[in-house]
């Protein structure tokens, strides 16, 4: 009953309303003379410095889903759940080489989305449309998953009822507030809120990893309890606190594939393009692995929950369990009510920041690469900003609909599909920053081949736990390819390799046939432009008395 959690509810509500107020105030923070411009509404004026970018990108990448799903996976499967830790470490050196080039060419030409870059680089509106639609489709379930995180907290506090309306009403209200201040303040809202969100997360996790082991008998007892659970109850022989010969390949390919996908997501690129200069990106790519330390500690909460005897709350269908409630229940059982309320607020606010950025990124893709390209070529900057604002509202409504009308567990599986989908933009976006060797027609053919194979592989994967025959995960058995082995591999890696192979072969054919490859709208020095370059496209002028930017 909610009355048993009254203190938690009060603390959660107060902090939630505080950051909501900050979201509305953000429109006046570093205020421009004109918010009716995508550079200002959708990219914060392209002027964020070191500290703001640190919190914005960190808050964007480490979402509420991270804080509930990673430990839930460790709770249920063991070592496989730690794949998120290495992939968030190895990604930063790789994107260090890519994002600086993307920032430069985007600022010189005024690109707002990765599809803008692809349109100019390969002279192909069709390829740009493919990249834009892929980004939107991959982002939608990601936004819905932020709702899964909030729902896990609300369910633990007992504020969700039995009926469909009672169960989802608090989430609908929360996202209505999010939609309102995102509409008004644009990217400035999540940028400002990210300061509070990340501070709360760091405090909560550090307190948890210092306090809980003492209560649970030490780390030795925690790992012993986890090992005993997996030996006694594991339905899957691959579950355990260590990897085995059958799941090591899946672990490596899942970690590497997830790393490649992370900064292809439109919301990741949006946070980077809002940076003031290349040095800001370099410093943040060097420092952001600090978040991975916290992520590793968050993952360990799954083992702590096993040692504490946590039982997940019932799921949405009879007889099922909602594994995403593992961490909220752990805090509810092991901490005073007021601190549990702070932890719940950290998770809830942790959903607002990425959800806002994701909806803005998806809206920018629609506005620049569908609306302006195909519906109104002469759209003014003000019209673009207005369409993007409205689209961001529609995107949030769609995310809420995913939770209301679909089983939340299916939304989680959709996110796995999203990673496979967004990986298919790697040749055009990431490799396109370094080479134009691939033919524009070949990139479309490669995308189609990778997407088709990826969807076929995902369709073949069942999920025994949810009794679903298709789209039940991302671990594809190599035996289905005719190999005599029990090993599995991440679908996304296979699909993107096929994508690259087809793109290379079709490029050779089209070049041999002398098919027109279009004109490159960029020049080599575009990829090295920096702040102060006279050819870098400035955003709308900012007020002279705007608050100064802190420097990292």
Automatic annotation (TrEMBL):
Ranges annotated as spanning the membrane: 6-27, 48-68, 74-99, 126-145, 165-183, 190-212, 249-267, 288-310, 338-366, 387-406, 412-434, 441-459, 489-510
Main localization (coarse): membrane
Protein localization: Membrane
One GO cellular component term noted in the UniProt record for this chain: plasma membrane
Annotated region (Disordered), positions in chain: 522-552
Record-linked Gene3D superfamilies: Sodium/glucose cotransporter
UniProt GO MF annotations: transmembrane transporter activity
Keyword line: Membrane, Transmembrane, Transmembrane helix, Transport
InterPro entries (UniProt xref): Na/Glc_symporter_sf, Na/solute_symporter, Sodium:Solute_Symporter
CDD domains in alphabetical order: SLC5sbd (cd10322)
Recorded family membership: Belongs to the sodium:solute symporter (SSF) (TC 2.A.21) family.
Protein's recorded name: Solute:Na+ symporter, SSS family
Natural source organism: Micromonospora haikouensis
């Amino acid at each position: 009953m909610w009355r048993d959690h009254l203190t938690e509810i009060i603390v959660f509500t107060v902090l939630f309303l505080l950051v909501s107020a900050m979201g509305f105030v953000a429109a006046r923070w570093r205020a421009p003379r004109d918010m009716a411009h995508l550079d200002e509404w959708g990219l914060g004026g392209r002027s964020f410095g070191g500290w703001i970018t640190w919190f914005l990108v960190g808050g964007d990448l480490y979402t509420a889903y991270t804080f509930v799903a990673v430990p839930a996976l460790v709770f249920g499967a063991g070592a496989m759940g730690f794949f998120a830790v290495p992939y968030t470490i190895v990604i930063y050196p790789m994107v260090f080489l890519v994002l600086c080039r993307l920032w430069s060419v985007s600022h010189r030409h005024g690109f707002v989305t990765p599809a803008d870059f692809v349109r100019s680089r390969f002279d192909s509106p069709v390829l740009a449309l493919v990249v834009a639609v892929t980004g939107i489709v991959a982002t939608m379930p990601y936004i819905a998953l932020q709702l899964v995180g909030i729902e896990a907290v609300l369910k633990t506090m007992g504020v969700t009822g039995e009926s469909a309306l009672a169960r989802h009403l608090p989430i609908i209200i929360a996202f209505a507030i999010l939609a309102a201040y995102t509409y008004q303040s644009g990217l400035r809202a999540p940028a400002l809120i990210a300061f509070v969100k990340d501070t709360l997360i760091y405090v909560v996790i550090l307190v948890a990893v210092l306090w809980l082991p003492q209560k649970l008998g030490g780390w030795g007892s925690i790992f012993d309890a986890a090992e005993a659970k997996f030996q006694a109850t594991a339905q899957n022989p691959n579950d355990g606190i260590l990897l085995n010969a059958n799941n090591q390949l899946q672990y490596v390919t899942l970690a590497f594939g997830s790393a490649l996908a992370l900064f292809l997501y439109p919301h990741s690129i949006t946070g980077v393009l809002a940076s003031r200069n290349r040095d800001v990106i370099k410093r943040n790519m060097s420092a952001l692995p600090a978040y991975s330390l916290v992520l590793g500690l968050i993952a360990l909460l799954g083992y702590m929950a096993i040692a504490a005897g946590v039982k997940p709350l019932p799921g949405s269908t009879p007889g099922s369990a909602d594994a995403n409630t593992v961490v909220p229940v752990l805090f509810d059982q092991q901490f005073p009510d007021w601190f549990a309320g702070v932890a719940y607020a950290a998770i809830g606010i942790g959903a607002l920041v990425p959800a806002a950025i994701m909806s803005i990124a998806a809206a920018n893709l629609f506005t620049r690469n569908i609306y302006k390209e195909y519906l109104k070529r002469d759209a003014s900057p003000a019209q673009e900003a207005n369409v993007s604002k409205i689209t961001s509202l529609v995107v949030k409504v769609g995310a809420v609909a995913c939770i209301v009308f679909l089983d939340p567990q299916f939304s989680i599986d959709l996110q796995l599909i999203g990673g496979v989908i967004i990986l298919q933009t790697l040749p055009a976006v990431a490799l396109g920053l370094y080479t134009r060797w691939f033919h524009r027609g070949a990139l479309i053919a490669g995308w189609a081949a990778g997407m088709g194979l990826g969807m076929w592989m995902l369709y073949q994967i069942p999920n025994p736990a949810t009794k679903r025959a298709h789209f039940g995960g991302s671990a594809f058995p190599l035996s289905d390819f005719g190999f005599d082995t029990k090993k599995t591999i991440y679908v996304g890696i296979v699909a993107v390799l096929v994508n690259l192979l087809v793109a290379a072969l079709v490029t050779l054919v089209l070049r041999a046939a002398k098919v027109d490859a279009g004109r490159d709208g960029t020049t080599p020095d575009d990829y090295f432009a920096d702040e102060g370059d006279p050819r870098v496209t400035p955003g709308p002028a900012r007020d002279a008395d705007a608050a100064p930017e802190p420097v990292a």
